[in-house]
Amino acid sequence: MNTTQEKPYAVGMDIGGTNTVFGIVNARGEILGSDAIKTRDYEKIEDYIDAICEHLKPLIESVGGTDKIRGMGVGAPNGNFYRGTIEHAPNLRWKGVIPLAQMLQDKLGFPVALTNDANAAAIGEMTYGAAKGMKHFIMITLGTGVGSGIVIDGKMVYGKDGFAGELGHVIVHENGRSCGCGRKGCLEAYCSATGIARTAKEIMETTDKPSLLREIPIDSLTSKDLYDAAVKGDAVALDIFRQTGELLGKAFANFVVFSSPEAIILFGGLAKAGDYIFKPIEEAMEANMLNIFKGKTKLLASAMKDTDAAVLGASALGWEA
Amino acid sequence: MNTTQEKPYAVGMDIGGTNTVFGIVNARGEILGSDAIKTRDYEKIEDYIDAICEHLKPLIESVGGTDKIRGMGVGAPNGNFYRGTIEHAPNLRWKGVIPLAQMLQDKLGFPVALTNDANAAAIGEMTYGAAKGMKHFIMITLGTGVGSGIVIDGKMVYGKDGFAGELGHVIVHENGRSCGCGRKGCLEAYCSATGIARTAKEIMETTDKPSLLREIPIDSLTSKDLYDAAVKGDAVALDIFRQTGELLGKAFANFVVFSSPEAIILFGGLAKAGDYIFKPIEEAMEANMLNIFKGKTKLLASAMKDTDAAVLGASALGWEA
User: Fold this and answer.
1) What whole-number distance in Å separates Cα of residue B249 and Cα of residue A144?
2) Is A81 on the interface with B (CB under 8 A)?
């Protein structure tokens, strides 16, 4: 029997374009040990798998060996839950369809489940974070891209093919900005880190408003920079938050008519800007909300610590692997 | 025990702004008897309930009495599945929140479940129609309004409050046409019967293209008129189909990133225009589709007969009541 008592730990792993982070987690959501490798260092997927297993080994030994591990959950870009594969991920070196879950499982000897990173974040939030006890919510991850994980009736929405919940690629502006996906006007083209930098550039190039942001190279502009400037009353920073929030709020009003969630939960650097971003989102969301949904959907910040969220989120999937 | 054998029939009822239709259905989806009353004839909800029960009585007797009825399903505008209520329906005379399911149940003596009309159509399609065997699909009803029923993992999506799936009220044009809901630019403002009539009016007023449609009073223009004109090569009719289809197709591409359905199923007069409407929808849908979903989502016409669909759809809910 695989009871939690006999197998009290799960492994969580998050694959990012730059770093791959993994850790051992107990049922209370405490990370007992973690490590990381550079994702880009491995040209061949086999070498990458070997490196993960090698780094995981001492962590697993420290909690009593593989017998103590219930399973492993992996959050990966373009991760497919049904098939345990990473499929055509633009940010990774391995092209085509990679059967990552199976490869890891064969080497590690315990079950491995895989999903995309935003879904892993949503599962983490539901298990350990702001969505505890919620049956219906939408997780929006604001980072290098804009991702989403949708939970309905307490279950992740994977859709027919395992790829449901790509809300960063809802088209919000016809013939709008080019998006990395090859189309135009996606939410991600405006509200991802690079999208926000583009907004900043547009504002600074088309106005002569003085701004602290003018001293920061546009490509290294972070949500933290925006926040710091906004606190000092910087008009450009405030305008960026307002424009970005308005777009998100309008998009969220459209998401609500789909699944009528209890909450929309924001994760990522931008979500830490507090009222600067939450106020404009809430205003636009309510102003554009269909009557029967008005005032019903909470807008929340993730309750997960940034550094732990990716590993915890993925580990939550490991319990069910 | 309530086996199908002992209780082999369900009652289906559809409440429309004009007519209320009901019938007795067997497990194979055959309507054994049906009747209708005028919805607007009853100022007091109690009188309306009495009239329904009175008209249902002979139908129920004809199949062996209430003992033979498994349950009743009702499709109603602004119907709330969780609460069995009709809430603030703009097209009905009874204001506020009407506990219709409970009222009927008390009078009839068998379980009554209620949902909105588009959800009832989706359940009907899943039980008897084009979505048989599908786990993930979206039903779009194109009629006086634009409604939707979303099925994920074989289950209707009701959301937190029972009102999920109002895709007719996704905003597709910022500051677009006024919608009956009080906002602007909803899909319904373009693709409902009145929306399409507005498009027709716009085209005919802004161009001098000759058209058979110019002879039809705009308020009585039907999908059938459009189809008949299109068959004769009428440029205005073809243009209306193209514009309407393009809008629907773009909206559908955004719906697909949400739940990655196997199919989108169209119901209503417009869905009978065949390629005239399906072609432009499919083209716009695929042109605007995120890469990973391209070519994956079928666009289908409902397989339910118009006259039966409402009663059958609602009855399907009656089996689970």
Assistant:
1) 29
2) no
Q: What is the per-residue pLDDT across B214-266, written as a single tens digit (0 to 9) for each? A: 999 998 999 999 999 999 999 999 999 999 999 999 999 999 999 999 999 99
H helices within B264-303, ranges in order?
Answer: 275-287
A259 and A297 Cβ atoms separated by less than 8 Å = no
For the stretch B42-51, pLDDT in tens is 999 999 999 9
B183 close contact with A: CB closer than 8 A? yes
Give how far B24 is from chain A: nearest CA, Å. 31
Longest dimension (CA), chain B: 68
pTM of the entire predicted model: 0.93
pLDDT for the residue A4:
61
Contacts of B187 in chain A (CB under 8 A): none
pLDDT of residue A227 exceeding 60, the answer is yes
Res. B1: pLDDT tops 50: no
Q: Match 């059967």 to its residue by tokens.
A: A99
Place of tokens 């084009």: B130
Contacts B261 to A, Cβ<8 Å: 159-160
Which of chain B's residues have a Cβ under 8 Å away from the Cβ of A159? 136, 152, 259-261
Q: Which residue has the tokens 């990381």?
A: A36
Residue B263 token pair? 């199919």
User: Which residues of A are less than 8 Å from B159 in CB distance?
Assistant: 136, 152, 259-261
Residue B38 CA to its chain's centroid (Å): 19
Nearest C-alpha in B relative to A166: B257
The pLDDT tens digits of the residues spanning B185-202 come to 999 999 999 999 999 999
Helices in A223-305 by DSSP H: which ranges? 223-231, 235-259, 275-287
Angle at B198 between CA B196 and CA B199, to 5 degrees: 65
Inter-chain residue contact A167 with B258, CB threshold 8 Å: yes
Cα–Cα distance for residue pair A7/A20, rounded to 1 Å = 24
How many H-runs (helices) and E-runs (strands) does chain B carry? 9, 13
ipTM above 0.90, yes or no: yes
